[in-house]
Write a structure and sequence with these properties.
Layout: E1 7-16, E2 19-27, H1 35-44, E3 58-65, E4 71-79, E5 83-91, E6 107-108, H2 124-138, H3 145-150, E7 156-157
Parallel strand pairs: 2-3
Antiparallel strand pairs: 1-2, 1-7, 3-4, 4-5, 5-6
């Protein structure tokens, strides 16, 4: 299987269900992800968030539009100060028990059903987000959530070395 570059779009953070969510979109389409797929994904996102535990309420989400009918939403949330909580939903992918090929019909992938945290394209922001959390929330003189939220990858490609 060959690696084919995909576009990485960085969107402004939003607040969803009381959490700050940094947003990354991954797609082969240079025009970006279809608005109806984005809208459907963010409608299901609250179901993928952990309960508050005293950790500053921050997450990062990767919405990936596959080359087929599939769309995937991976949500990584900071919990227990330095741990990642993972939630996932998919649409249009029968291999993940989606009921149809509709890329706007997201269903939650229950923990244990698939113990996957992302594909090579979806994981491009992961290392950066870990570093940003350490820099701004754990190693700083005082935690700075605003600085963490402002520290993102740049839009471009998912890259071999992203």
């Amino acid at each position: 299987m060959a690696f084919a570059e995909k576009h990485l779009f960085v969107l402004e953070p939003v607040v969803i269900a009381g959490r700050h969510v940094k947003r990354y979109h991954v797609t082969a389409d240079p025009a970006g992800i279809e608005p109806e797929v984005e809208k459907a994904a963010y409608a299901v996102l609250p179901e993928l968030l952990p309960e508050p535990d005293g950790t500053p309420p921050a997450s990062f989400a990767v919405l990936h539009r596959g080359g087929d009918s599939g769309a995937y939403l991976n949500v990584y949330s900071w919990a227990w100060d330095n741990v990642i909580h993972f939630g996932c939903a998919a649409a249009g992918q029968p291999a993940l028990d989606c009921p149809d090929l509709d890329p706007t019909h997201f269903v939650r992938i229950e923990p244990g059903a698939r113990n996957w945290i992302g594909c090579v394209w979806e994981l491009a922001p992961f290392g950066h987000e870990r570093g940003a959390w350490v820099r701004h929330m754990l190693a700083a003189d005082a935690p700075d959530l605003d600085a963490y939220l402002a520290d993102t990858l740049s839009s471009g490609t998912t890259g071999v070395d992203a």
